[in-house]
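Pipeline run #58 for the internal structure catalog. This entry was flagged by the ingest filter as a single-chain record with no existing model, so it goes straight to prediction. Upstream metadata was stripped on purpose; only the residue string is passed forward. Reviewer on rotation: M.T. Logging verbosity set to normal.
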Amino acid sequence: MSSVTGTDKQSLSVPVTDARIDKFMNKLFDTINIGRMTLKNRIAMSAMDLGFTSDGTINDQIIDFYRERAKGGVGLIVVGGCYPEMNGKVWKSIIGLDRDEFISGLKRLTDAIHLYDVRVAAQLLHGGRSASSFFTKMQPVAPTKLTHRSIKQEPHALTVPEIKTVINNYVSATMRAKEAGFDAVELHGGMGYLINQFLSEATNKRDDAYGGSLENRARFAKEMILAIKETVGKDYPIIFRMSGDDFVEGGLRIQESLEIAKILEYAGVDAFNVSPGWHESKIPIMLMAIPRMAYVFLSEKFKSQVKIPVIASVRINDLKLAEEILENEQADMVSVGRPLIVDPELPNKYKSGHLDDIRTCIACNQGCFDSLLNFKPVSCTYNAMVGHENEFKIIMTNSPKKVVVVGGGPGGMEAARILALRGHRVTLYERNRHLGGQLRYAFIPPGREEIQNIITYLERQMVKLKVDIKTEIEADLQTLQEEQPDAIVVATGGNPIIPNLPGIQAKNVCFASDVLDGSISVGRDIIIIGGGTVGCEVALHVAKKGAMRPDVACFLLKHKVLNANDVIEYTAKGNRNITILEMKRKIGGGFGISTRWIILNEIKDAGVREITEVKVKEIISNPRKNGHENTGVVYEKDGEDHFIKADTVIIAVGYSPNNEFRKQIEDKFPETYFIGDCVKVRTALEAIHEGFEVALKI
């Protein structure tokens, strides 16, 4: 057993440092001009829907959210999207700029941001065919009558007079933005929205002055920019967010985008914010599996062709990487969104060198994008304060207590952190050698490595706050009686469900956690019983065994031993034969909306076989006794029994609450709280938020 205290840092899996990096930040914290607008540094917060308004108006929740990010040290905040006319509203909760009545609320917002010497831009976003009548009560409009595959509503093809009206509405919205105190506007010309729909041949099939040639397709954006400059003022900055590559069939490729950029620069654009792809693209844009800085090559191309500032965006969650981008002249600024959701103070922490206090975004999308897609406001997996900036206050207690936390999973660790921040004396017990609970297994599969950042952050903070961490000790009633705590938080997590199957005790049967942590070696023929989150993750993990390393593939590709298709095949899958058996109609049901599709694609690419709507009946470990030639699994599908041979059978049917400890101590102590999976199996987000809120009550 071991005990980690505030001075015993060696027991942690991640070392604690407090390095100062001021001298390395040569460019990131330099000033920069976008037109006549001067920014104190080169970090911009990208526009994002927050889900905090239902009628387009600014409220205190939005102001509190952005005030914290302004206080955190960014140079520019882009607010939005803001719709310039009602039939461009792409979501119920985006901000309105189509009527004068919105100005007063927006002025409150810009005033709050300006208090911290931060400039603020309004992003003007018209969805075009991406807007639904569900929100607008209007038929969508577009350059051409081409239906969006998700919206499934045929848009009205804009006439030339109607195009002029849309441009005028953009001008009016910009005037309102200026009156409300915005220092600039950002025209959203990417992601498959209206301006992008005019620019791209994939969606623009017009044969008039606004379609056909590249110059004609750029005319809508060009006329809009010229009209804004003429009406609002030539010195009023315009940022243009543009797809460097649409990543859709028939869409803009980088060379066309560069030619359009030159046209728009001449028309008066003051900076380009370069992003990849469309929401309709089959290439992932905003997911954890995307390597950091994967799309910076697009901004680098822009920077080589235009004279105005270029902003790099997407999957830049580390400001050390951002500094590299600037040093390598791949961009003049960086735009970050989700990293500032999870850590509003990210710039200030970097600038002051407090690297270990940073909560690094893991790009899980669980609390942000997935919440919006489920018509819920934005939150964050491991920052429970998001959306509650003025509601939740971490205040020092006037009556410090001795608190014992039982369980070192994410919920227990977050509870311990908040309790310690509030001044309580905290001891945390964890029966395993390492902290993290079930989350320790989640970052092992390929493309999921970022999840470890949660454990790293919570470990480091508990050490800093002098939480007494006791690992490899399973707390019991006697332990608590000896501790004599004033309050107890129980976060004992869940236990793997063991199905009642003949043969379940066989030597070739194991749990997903045993495979993920490397304690079990798998054979060549593998059956995974259970196709939920854990089943899919362990499938990807074992599918990579024997796969070609990327560096080897690049070497062979360079020397023309392999072609691109060979590389994809050899790096995607190894030498195992893997089958998932799932009782439900589809696998992957536990993943979020924005993540599930890419996980399923990866499983398919890895050659994993899926058999759904089955009932597993028996695990064969003694072939002769059971009349089979091989070990394997018997399952029923469509009323018939089938057999699949298997060297290894992995159980991944989920977890059930570990409530044995709860039964031991319930009603034996005056102040006891039960959180996380020991009550009900739930997500890491739910467990962490529950730990946070419980700690505020004690």
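catalog note: The chain has three domains: 32-373, 402-495+656-697, 509-653.
catalog note: The CA atoms of residues 529 and 621 lie 15 Å apart.
status: ready for reviewer M.T.
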